[in-house]
């Protein structure tokens, strides 16, 4: 029997897939480190990291080994049983954080769903059903389930999927007065990203997080930090909350936790975890041996002084060079973020045109991201070689130069 497969083309997407994505015209087929290759053999440097997922680049040998070894032992047994990789990974996360208990799932949305459900369950059990309100922030992003998309503060993602869940309020990010006005005895949780990722790579102010922590304690509400994008070393600390010295009651992580393999986690304290008694919440695939074996290898590599310090050093190189490019070509008004989660905010003349920069970069064989139409986002591998940063920036400068030259020509 022949095992040869039919050729696959980008046009097949439009034929067989639900049209909720608009993928690029080329199809990546192979990756190694911070480079990917498409079907034609074209090589691109990856400053996108699978949207901050490929924390150790593509096909890191330790991750390949962990997955391969586990694949030869045990794939799935369901949560009727436990398994060794899940227990090992949970123990590593607890030892590296404020947490005492871990719940595994498969995506950031699922981790946030669990966090929000837990917060409501704690409040219901301890105070009654009237304490169910959730405060989120404008322009936040917490996932695509009906619950999480409405907790997220971007109406463009939630419109058309009503009726909306009740008891959700949105306040401006980094606005202490607005939070003080919104929170009350009916609030069960405040959910925040320490750095707003999808809406523009916007870090929280220290005073803001400190005051929100105080308000949550005052009103007996749980503080949830969504670190789906910032967790696992992305900012130069294992978790972004460590930069601020403000601990949450619940923390969610995903993306980088599996280095490309789907896995997420909700971390919390024992006194809250006990409210998720047997049968109150669950997941079929969450905590499976394959995902947790890979996650264990990821944290072993990332949670070291050498790698975390290297993230800060690489981030500083990338930030400084982007600032220089912004000044040279007049395209960026600000470069912000922490570690290797960086947003270059377009100047007034280029507002709304982030997609042009992505397209131009791709033509120069470089992958970058957007964080809304005003921000070009960079989230490369945490261990990308400095020489690759420089080569990628040279490609990006060529892209910026062509955009600006074309703009002058068309004026």
Q: What does the model show?
A:
- Pfam families: Aminotran_3.
- It catalyses: N(2)-acetyl-L-ornithine + 2-oxoglutarate = N-acetyl-L-glutamate 5-semialdehyde + L-glutamate.
- The chain is an alpha/beta fold.
- The chain is built from 15 helices and 17 strands.
- The strands form 4 sheets. A 7-stranded mixed sheet has the order 4-12-11-10-7-5-6, with helices on both faces.
- Strand 1 and strand 2 form a beta hairpin.
- The model has no long low-confidence stretch (mean pLDDT 96).
In short:
The modification N6-(pyridoxal phosphate)lysine is found at residue 255. 40% of the residues lie in helices and 18% in strands.
Radius of gyration: 22 Å
- At CATH level 2, the architecture of the largest domain is 3-Layer(aba) Sandwich
Beta-strand content bin: 15-25%
The strand line-up of the biggest sheet is: 4-12-11-10-7-5-6
| Poorly predicted runs of 5 or more residues | none
CATH superfamily of the largest domain: Type I PLP-dependent aspartate aminotransferase-like (Major domain)
Helix content: 40-55%
Keywords: Amino-acid biosynthesis, Aminotransferase, Arginine biosynthesis, Cytoplasm, Pyridoxal phosphate, Transferase
Binding site for pyridoxal 5'-phosphate: 108-109, 141, 226-229, 284
Catalytic activity: N(2)-acetyl-L-ornithine + 2-oxoglutarate = N-acetyl-L-glutamate 5-semialdehyde + L-glutamate
EC number: 2.6.1.11
């Amino acid at each position: 029997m022949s095992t040869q497969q039919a050729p696959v083309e980008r046009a097949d997407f439009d034929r067989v897939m639900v049209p909720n994505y608009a993928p690029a015209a080329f199809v990546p087929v192979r990756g190694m480190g911070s480079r990917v290759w498409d079907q034609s053999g074209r090589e691109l440097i990856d400053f996108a990291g699978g949207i901050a997922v490929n924390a150790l680049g593509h096909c890191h040998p330790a991750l390949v080994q962990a997955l391969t070894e586990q694949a030869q032992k045990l794939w799935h047994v369901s949560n009727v049983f436990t398994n060794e990789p899940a227990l090992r990974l949970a123990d590593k996360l607890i030892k590296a954080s404020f947490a005492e208990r871990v719940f595994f799932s498969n995506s950031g949305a699922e981790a946030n769903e669990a966090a929000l459900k837990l917060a409501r369950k704690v409040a219901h059990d301890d105070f009654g059903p009237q304490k169910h309100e959730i405060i989120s922030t404008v322009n936040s992003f917490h996932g695509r389930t009906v619950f999480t998309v409405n907790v997220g503060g971007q109406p463009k993602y939630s419109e058309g999927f009503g009726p909306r869940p009740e008891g959700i309020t949105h306040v401006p990010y980094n606005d202490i007065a607005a939070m003080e006005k919104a929170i009350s005895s009916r609030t069960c949780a405040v959910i925040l990203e320490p750095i707003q990722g999808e809406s523009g790579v916007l870090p929280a102010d220290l005073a803001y997080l400190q005051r929100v922590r105080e308000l949550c304690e005052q009103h007996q509400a749980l503080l949830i930090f969504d670190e789906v994008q910032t967790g696992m070393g992305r900012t130069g600390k294992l978790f972004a909350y460590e930069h601020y010295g403000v601990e949450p009651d619940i923390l969610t992580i995903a993306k980088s936790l599996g280095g490309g393999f789907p896995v997420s986690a909700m971390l919390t304290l024992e006194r809250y975890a006990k409210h998720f008694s047997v049968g109150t919440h669950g997941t079929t695939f969450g905590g499976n041996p394959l995902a947790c074996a890979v996650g264990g290898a990821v944290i072993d590599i990332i949670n070291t002084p050498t790698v975390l310090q290297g993230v800060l050093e690489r981030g500083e190189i990338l930030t400084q060079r982007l600032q220089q490019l912004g000044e040279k070509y007049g395209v960026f008004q600000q470069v912000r973020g922490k570690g290797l989660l960086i947003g270059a905010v377009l100047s007034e003349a280029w507002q709304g045109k982030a997609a042009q920069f992505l397209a131009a970069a791709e033509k120069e064989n470089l992958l970058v991201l957007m964080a809304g139409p005003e921000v070009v986002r960079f989230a490369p591998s945490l261990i990308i070689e400095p020489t690759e940063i420089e080569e990628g920036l040279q490609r990006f400068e060529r892209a910026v130069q062509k955009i600006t030259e074309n703009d002058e020509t068309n004026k």
